[in-house]
Amino acid sequence: MFFSVYTLGCKLNQLETEAITDSFFRKGFIPVSWNSSESAIRVINTCTVTSMAEQKARRVIRKALRNHPNVCLIVTGCYAQMEKSALAALEQEGSERLFIIPGEKKDSLLDLSAFLVEKGALSEKRNLAELISLWADHDTKAGDGTFRFRPESFSAHSRGFLKIQDGCDSHCSYCRVGHARGKSRSLDAEEALKELKALEQRGFAEVVLTGVNISQYSNSGLNLPGLLDFLLKGTKNIRLRLSSIEPELLSDDFFQVIKNKRIRPHFHLSVQSGSAKILEKMDRHYTPAEVEKTLERFRTVRDDPFLACDIIAGFPGETEEDFQDTLQLCERSAFAWIHTFPFSPRPGTTAASFPGRVSERDATRRVKLLTELARKGRGQYIERWTGREVEAIVEASGQKALPKGHVQGLSENYLKLSIDCGTEPIPAPGSLIHCRLLQQNPMYGKKLNDVHAFCIITSGR
Fold first, then answer.
1. Would you identify the CATH topology of the domain 386-460?
2. Domain residue ranges of the chain, discontinuous segments joined by +
3. What is the pLDDT of residues 397-450, one digit of tens each?
4. Which of its termini does the chain have fewer beta carbons within 10 Å around, N or C?
């Protein structure tokens, strides 16, 4: 029996989808692409960060129901947690093949494949929709399954992912992820080390530590820098990459531990604005000056790290002066990338009712200016690294048209590479290699192209 998955949103969602995929695969189900007509079960893992993410989820659901009349479609994730009734209404009356599993019960999907096998779904002619309905009615109990998502293999990634934290206690005025994911909770440090060791033994050279807000990690008497130190001391070679972090929660201990060369020099900060007034309205507990000081510390302890940020454009009450404060902060900070998006009023958040709504035209213009600055910043960052040697992870090729003898790679400092192997054997996906940046991709910034730079391999293992 064939199945497909579709993921919207963050790296945490990606990890959880990988675990669901792995659970199906290990029970004899065959993964196929989302567009395949062969798929009998489709799982879509949704996001509720922006209205655009929700709109995309609805489009994907409607299209799947329309184009695949016999498919069983399972919708889970944060959007399913917050708007279960609205999503259920997308199905035509009497169809009974759309199943909404709230995010708090997402881990129950890890047991679905075993249930279906037990009920004979693979070997007998059973009504699949009836079986899934039976499972949904009786086996999707909410429990403490937050950290059950531990795939043994990753179908869409050459790197490993480890979920160390979930939920958020920050209560930012614009965000409802905390409502969807709940309060912050953290994986036991010994469990985290056990899983990291297992990933290292399975051959993973790099693991991404992920969560909703990993800066709030707190377990076994350890905070995030304490956990990092514990994991580094308990393993030998595996590299660690951090998902998004909060500027105000970065302590002296954090900057001490990230001096370790096994922590990737790639840091993504949730900055959100460069205006002190807007940051206060967002309920963010730092100032623009503190952001700049934090960035200076990163550059002091690591050699020209890849520094990126999130920015919300067009927050209610954001004047042109406020936006210029943000733009100038980003220019001074020389970010290697800026992930920017327009403000989206989220139901149930305080910012949804704030006055001073910025017009869609102005918000779009501000996003465009920040995106142009982001492209410029990444281009300048690539140029600074041209001629230098970097460590990289070989990624599965075939997704992009690469020159003959090249492999696709991701550098330690988050550059997407086309790597010329020369006379060296072609390294396998997941391999850790060294290569030298030769030149920036001449098409970078001119059209959509994932390759940032061309390299030549210098050594590998």
1. OB fold (Dihydrolipoamide Acetyltransferase, E2P) (2.40.50)
2. 2-138, 160-373, 386-460
3. 654 578 888 999 999 999 999 999 988 888 999 999 999 999 998 877 665 457
4. C
Beta strands in 314-446 (DSSP E): 337-342, 389-395, 406-411, 416-420, 432-440
SS3 227: helix
Which alpha helices (H) appear in 271-319, and where do they start and end?
276-281, 288-301
Tell me, what amino acid is at 460? G
What is the pTM for the complete model shown?
0.93
CB 369 within 8 A of CB 331: no
CATH number for the 2-138 domain, one of 3.40.50.12160, 3.40.50.300, 3.30.420.10, 3.40.710.10?
A: 3.40.50.12160
Tell me the DSSP string of 34-61: TT-TT-SEEEEEE--SSHHHHHHHHHHH
CA pair distance 220, 222, nearest whole angstrom: 5
The dihedrals phi and psi of 240, each to the nearest 5 degrees, come to -120, 135
What are phi and psi for residue 13, nearest 5 degrees?
-60, -40
**Residue 426: CB partners within 8 Å, gap ≥ 6?**
405, 407
CA distance 449 to 190: 41
* CA proximity to 256, closest of 300, 212, 308: 300
Q: What is the DSSP letter of 96?
A: -
Lowest mean pLDDT, pick from 89-98, 150-159, 317-326: 89-98
> Does an H or E element contain 75, and which?
strand 72-77
In order of 101, 298, 437, the CA distances from 289 in angstroms are 43, 15, 34
Q: pLDDT tens digits for 324-372?
A: 999 999 999 999 999 999 999 999 999 999 999 999 999 999 999 999 9
How far apart are the C-alpha atoms of 300 and 319, rounded to whole Å? Answer: 34
Question: Which run of H or E residues covers position 239?
Answer: strand 239-242
CA dihedral sign of residues 405, 409, 413, 414: positive
Specify the DSSP class assigned to residue 433: E
In the block, which residue shows the tokens 């799947």? 64
Q: What strand order describes the sheet that includes 306-313?
A: 266-272, 306-313, 337-342
Helix H, strand E, coil C: the string for 194-220 is HHHHHHHHCCCCEEEEECCCHHHCEEC
Evaluate whether 403 touches 418 at the Cβ level (below 8 Å).
yes
**160-373 has which fold?**
pyruvate-formate lyase- activating enzyme (3.80.30)
Instruction: Go through the chain and tell me how many residues it has.
Output: 461
Write out the two tokens for 447.
């059209």
Residue 433 dihedral angles phi and psi, to the nearest 5°:
-135, 170
What is d(CA 369, CA 357) in angstroms, rounded to the nearest whole number?
Answer: 19
Q: Percent helix, strand, coil in the chain (nearest 5)?
A: 40, 25, 40
